[in-house]
């Protein structure tokens, strides 16, 4: 089952974006794409994940698994986000052992949603 | 397609729970169940939605639709939560017009996740 890493590309992280500069969300998306998605993960731009009070956000989802949303991400976190996404994709059920999760996933969780019933 | 209203029943809303009292999340769940779910909505208890820094949380999900998570909910919000869940369930795609959404949904969004690809 394909894991999608959703990246909010409209995020301004609560700051004005000077003319000619790209917003933090788009910068994060570009950093993730440039680094390359791990096996089984597709990186997808999303226009607003409605987590605007919590900096740049990303979400992980996959049919039959819990979905996760993380906030206060920056382009400097790209490598750890991709590592966490890879562990999620490689897991049987989307539940990655706590100790293996990137610290930014442990500390900056915004929410998780139980698996969809189909 | 069935809409699930997930309710975090382990939420302490950042407060200690005195012995013999039930926690705010369980109280919210009981208030929702007592009010009765609107048509097309199933209320489901969840053990932690990982939104612990943002008070009691609920999530709405349905196959093929955006999922939403809302925070800082209390049992006093039960009626408005159920009204919002009913509108979500009655919509074609889970997208309820902004002006129709309960104010607590407009102002206390934690995140939304794009529809799952199946």
Question: In words, what does this structure look like?
Answer:
- The structure is a homodimer of 118-residue chains.
- In chain A, 25% of the residues lie in helices and 25% in strands.
- Chain A is of the alpha+beta class.
- Chain A has a single domain, classed as Glutaredoxin, CATH 3.40.30.
- Chain A is globular, with a radius of gyration of 14 Å.
- Chains A and B meet through β3, β4 and β5 of A and β3, β4 and β5 of B.
Task: Give the arrangement of secondary structure elements.
Two copies of one chain form a homodimer.
Chain A: E1 3-8, H1 24-35, E2 41-46, E3 56-61, E4 67-73, H2 78-90, H3 103-107, E5 109-113
Parallel strand pairs in A: 1-2
Antiparallel strand pairs in A: 1-3, 3-4, 4-5
Helix pairs in contact in A: 1-2
Pfam families (chains A, B): DUF1636
Protein name (chains A, B): DUF1636 domain-containing protein
Organism (chains A, B): Tabrizicola oligotrophica
